[in-house]
Amino acid sequence: MPAPVSIVQTHVHSLRLRNGAEALVARVMTPDGVAGFGFSLGPEALPARDMAAWDALGRSRNVPLYALFGTRLRERVAIGRESPRRLREADPFELGSVESVRSVAAEEGLVLVAPNAHPWELSYCAALAATLAGEVQIAVRVQPPAPSIIVSDVPGIDIDWSLEPAVATVRWHC
User: Fold this and answer.
1) In 3-state terms, what secondary structure has residue 152?
2) Domain spanning 9-62+161-169 has what CATH number?
3) Which residues contact 33 (CB under 8 A, 6 or more apart)?
4) Distance CA 87, CA 170 (A)
5) Fewer Cβ within 10 Å of end Cβ, the chain: N or C?
6) Is 56 helix (H, G, I), strand (E, B) or coil?
7) In the chain, where are the structural domains located?
8) For the whole model, what pTM was predicted?
9) What is the rounded CA–CA span in Å between residue 167 and residue 165?
10) For 124-174, what is each residue's pLDDT tens digit?
């Protein structure tokens, strides 16, 4: 899937999170100098780059991530430890286009998987879930940090990078 904005620079760092997991954190720069940031808790950098591009687009337009995907249909998204059996479970980083996510959610209902319940995962899933019709929730594999998450109105993805001290040590190439 092509990036939603023109990218003149991509930089990806690997870092160890406090919980011991490895994350790939990406920064992209647009031709007009807007930076966007994204992450992947898997082995591939492409989801981090794509997320950073969406973040840059939201920041450049001064709109939250969900506004790039459509109309916000909910202000809060439920978080559960297990997926309801009647809903389809999907990894939001592997579904491909927003259109494919939307069609699955409208037909079957959808559970977006944030296996680590990491705040970065939850923020991204909440922004995506906000625009999906039908029953939608976030499933985690550990004890949920809260029963639900509020969908943010901050431009871009609104990930609190300070939750992981290693991010502050990253030296981005200009």
Assistant:
1) coil
2) 3.30.160
3) none
4) 39
5) C
6) helix
7) 9-62+161-169, 67-150
8) 0.84
9) 5
10) 889 989 988 888 889 888 888 899 999 999 999 998 888 888 888 888 876
